[in-house]
Every structure is written in structure tokens, then in C-alpha cells.
Inverse folding.
């Protein structure tokens, strides 16, 4: 009797060729952006090693010192204004990142995504390693480290528009919130891995806290060059459908030039005789054209304040834990990863809820409103016990990073494939860059404000973060109202975005 087909082979053949390619691209892009975030995290872990209370450190017997409190610090961060100097490093990266992001999206629409990502990851790896080499070369110049941060910030802008554009090319709109919610966990996974890797070396040779992540992201750049497939058509796979049939049959104000008997489906015009006329979009969308897409401005401004909160935690949470809970640098870094674990769950939940309700803006607004009181509670009672700290970090991470994750992934992809574009697939990278670039302005301002405000007390930093969450909600108010009208039957309900 012939033996049945092996279970593993049956499982393998149960998926179509298209499904395997889509899964492969999802995994690759997840890996790529994990490496991007992994290489950004070390600076927040190393801060507490560059400046610490040296009176608690056992000094070598042959060391002649003049200051018992700063002898073990790394100049120039051994000064009283060390927090301001850390703010300079943070903003050297973040301001360059914010400015470069607007330009990066335009490049991403006009060059090969595979070449663009590979180049960006290799160069990011180089500059990350150069920062770490400052330890071995005994460089004590603030200008050197600031210059490295600026160059790294510019190189890091190659990542986000390109990976979102690539995923948007492969996946349609059906379960985009859930798929991208799971996929976007790369941000938190990268932060966690970056913290753990940097923590291994931070107390002995902090230079390796940068060199190892730098080598990792450079390696993924080589992987990208050899294996990334930008579009389904490149390997004869079926392209996704970005709009549902219901949406295709409806009329959008921006599409009124088409006759009533015609409609557009994935960039093709379908006539009343069911004749399909292909429309080839060869020109990338302009910056102003992308801004005119309904919803882009509102979500961009919301992300500015949401990302301000998220990146303040990214860069300052380990130092806050170290100062308030009196943990060692490695312990504080390990504890801060719980915020990112919560962010993974929050991003997935935001995607699932927004898919089910069709209310991207409402989902973000509810989570942002809940985040404010939780941040206040964390600052008030979050350090009373280990259990309280763990629980509050998980909840705060989910509420803070959930809206940020949803806007930068599913919302960006929805708007980048909005039906007003008539199937123009070359808008996704530009739209993503505008939204994330605006958010990156907040990402630059948040750590800077934290550096300026923290000497007056950590309470004031948290008041600033709570205010930012409130402003993020304010910019979504019009979209939330439109979604609420749709649910009440006074406006047509659609999944994602229809008329915003």
C-alpha cells in the first residue's frame, strides 16, 4: 500500500505560491525593521553608564582622582549639564531623522526599494559601529558623537517608507489592521533586542553595545539585497485588491471626472460593458498631492504628539527607572523592555479593533484618552513594588504604542492606497514619509523637552507627556465625529477610510 504524503509536505502544499511569497516578504520586512530599531536603542541604555554616581563604584587603587562623584564618567558627560548633553545627542539623531524622512519618501517612490533599503541598512550599520568605536579610540568630543548621530538619523530614514511601501504592495485592505498590527511588533521586538544586547556589554565595554547592533543591521542589508521582492508582479504573483467591491461602486468626490457608468478597480477603468481598460500610473505623486489626500494632515498631526510620547519613553525610560527606582544600568534597561512588550500587545489590539469597527481614528483616540490617566498613575505609584512597576509598564506601553503603531502602519497604507488616487501604487511611500516625518518632529521635540524639563523634576516630564496625548486626541476629533456619524446611520460606513 502506498504511504500517504508526509504531513510536512501536505502542510507545505496547502498554501498557494502567492501565500508563500507574501509570508516570506512579511518575514523579511519584519526582520529588516527589527534591525533598524535594534540599532537605535543602545544610546538609551548606555546613558546611565556614561554618567553615574561614581561614589558607589569601587575605584582602582592606582587611580589618582580629583572628583569622587565623576571619576568613572565618560567625558564630556561627566559635567553637571549631562542631561542637556544627552538631549543634544538625541536631537542630533531625531532632527536629522525628521527632516530626512520627508525627502526619503520621495526617493522611495523613484528608486528600487531593494537598493534603497540595502544601502540604508549598510550605512546605518557603519555609523552605529563608529559611535561604539569612540570607546576604543577614547574619543571625548561631543561634536564627534553628535555628527555620528546626525548621519545615522539620515540613514535610518531609508527604512520606514520603504518597508511600508513594500508590504502595501503585497497586501490588500481586508485584514490590514490585524496583519500590520502583528507585523508592526518589529518596533518593540527591535527595542527589546537592542536593550538586551546593549545591556550585555554596557557595564564592561559600552562600545560593544553599539558595534554588535551595527553589525546586525549591516548583515540584514546584505540579506535584503539578495532576497527582497518589491512587487508581486516581479515574480508573477497576483497583486492585492486595495478596495472592496462596495467601495469601488461608490463615488468619491475626487473621482467625479469619471462617467456614472464607469468605475475604477485597482487602477483600471471598468465600463458599463465590463470592458477593462488598464491605466498605467508612471508618475509618482507629488508632495502636495499626497497632502491633499483626505485624512493625511489630521493623522500626521496626531502622530506628531503620539510619537513625542513614545520616543520620550524610548530614550529616557531607562534613565528614569535608574534615577527613581535606583536600579543599575543593566537592570533598568531590562525593566524598560516591558514597555515595549506592552506595545506589541497594544499594536495588535488596535489593529484588530479598528478592523472590526472600521474606525481607525476612534480606536486611536480612545487609547490616547486612556493613556493620560495611566501615565499619571505610573509616575505616582509605579515604583512602589516590582509587581506594580511591571503591570504599569505593560499597560502604559500598550496604550502609548498602540495608536502610534496603528497610524504608522495600517492608517498609512490605507491612505497611501486611497481610492482617490485611482490605483496609483506609487503614492504609498510618499504618504508614509509625510505621516512618519511629521511624527518624527514630535519624536525630536519629546526627548529634547525631557532633557530640559527633567532637572526640574520628573513630575513635570509626565505632565508634558499627558498634555501631548490630549493634543493628539484633539487633532483626531473631526475624524472621530465622521466615524461616529457613520455608525449612527447618518453617513455610509466603510472599512478604513472612505470619505474623511
Amino acid at each position: 500500500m502506498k504511504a500517504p504524503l508526509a504531513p510536512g509536505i501536505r502542510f507545505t502544499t496547502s498554501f498557494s505560491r502567492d501565500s508563500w511569497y507574501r509570508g516570506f516578504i512579511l518575514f523579511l520586512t519584519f526582520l529588516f525593521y527589527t534591525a533598524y530599531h535594534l540599532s537605535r536603542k543602545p544610546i538609551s541604555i548606555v546613558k546611565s553608564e556614561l554618567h553615574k554616581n561614581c561614589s558607589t563604584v569601587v575605584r582602582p587603587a592606582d587611580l589618582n582622582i580629583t572628583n569622587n562623584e565623576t571619576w568613572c564618567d565618560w567625558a564630556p558627560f561627566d559635567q553637571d549639564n549631562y542631561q542637556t548633553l544627552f538631549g543634544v545627542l538625541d536631537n542630533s539623531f531625531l532632527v536629522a531623522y525628521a527632516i530626512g524622512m520627508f525627502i526619503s519618501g520621495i526617493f522611495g517612490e523613484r528608486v528600487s526599494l531593494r537598493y534603497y533599503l540595502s544601502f540604508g541598512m549598510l550605512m546605518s550599520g557603519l555609523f552605529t559601529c563608529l559611535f561604539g568605536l569612540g570607546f576604543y579610540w577614547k574619543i571625548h568630543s561631543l561634536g564627534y558623537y553628535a555628527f555620528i548621530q546626525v548621519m545615522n538619523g539620515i540613514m535610518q530614514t531609508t527604512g520606514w517608507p520603504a518597508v511600508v511601501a513594500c508590504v502595501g504592495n503585497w497586501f490588500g485592505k481586508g485584514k490590514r489592521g490585524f496583519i500590520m498590527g502583528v507585523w508592526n511588533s518589529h518596533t518593540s521586538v527591535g527595542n527589546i533586542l537592542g536593550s538586551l544586547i546593549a545591556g550585555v556589554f554596557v557595564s564592561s565595554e559600552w562600545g560593544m553595545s553599539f558595534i554588535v547592533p551595527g553589525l546586525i543591521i549591516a548583515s540584514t542589508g546584505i540579506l535584503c539585497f539578495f532576497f527582497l521582492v518589491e512587487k508581486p508582479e516581479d515574480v508573477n504573483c497576483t497583486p492585492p485588491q486595495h478596495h472592496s467591491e462596495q467601495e469601488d461602486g461608490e463615488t468619491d468626490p475626487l473621482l467625479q471626472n469619471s462617467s456614472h457608468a464607469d468605475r475604477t478597480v485597482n487602477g483600471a477603468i471598468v465600463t458599463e460593458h465590463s470592458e477593462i481598460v488598464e491605466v498605467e500610473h508612471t508618475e509618482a505623486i507629488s508632495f502636495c498631492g499626497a497632502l491633499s489626500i483626505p485624512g493625511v494632515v489630521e493623522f500626521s498631526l496626531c502622530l506628531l504628539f503620539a510619537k513625542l510620547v513614545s520616543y520620550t519613553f524610548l530614550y529616557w525610560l531607562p534613565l528614569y527607572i535608574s534615577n527613581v527606582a535606583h536600579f543599575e544600568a543593566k537592570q533598568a534597561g531590562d525593566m524598560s523592555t516591558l514597555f515595549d512588550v506592552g506595545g506589541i500587545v497594544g499594536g495588535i489590539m488596535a489593529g484588530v479593533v479598528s478592523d472590526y469597527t472600521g474606525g481607525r481614528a476612534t480606536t486611536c483616540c480612545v487609547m490616547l484618552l486612556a493613556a493620560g490617566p495611566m501615565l499619571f498613575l505610573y509616575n505616582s505609584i509605579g515604583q512602589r513594588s516590582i509587581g506594580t512597576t511591571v503591570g504599569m509598564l505593560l499597560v502604559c506601553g500598550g496604550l502609548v504604542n498602540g495608536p502610534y503603531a496603528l497610524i504608522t502602519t495600517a492608517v498609512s497604507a490605507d491612505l497611501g492606497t486611497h481610492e482617490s488616487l485611482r490605483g496609483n501604487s506609487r503614492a504609498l511611500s510618499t504618504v508614509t514619509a509625510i505621516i512618519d516625518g511629521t511624527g518624527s518632529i514630535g519624536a525630536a521635540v519629546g526627548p529634547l523637552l525631557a532633557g530640559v524639563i527633567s532637572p526640574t523634576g520628573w513630575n513635570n516630564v509626565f505632565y508634558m507627556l499627558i498634555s501631548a496625548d490630549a493634543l493628539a486626541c484633539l487633532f483626531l476629533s473631526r475624524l472621530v465625529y465622521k466615524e461616529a456619524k457613520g455608525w449612527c446611520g447618518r453617513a455610509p460606513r466603510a472599512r478604513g477610510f472612505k470619505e474623511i
In short: Confidence is low (pLDDT under 50) at residues 244-282, 491-500. The beta strands are 263-265, 268-270, 276-278.
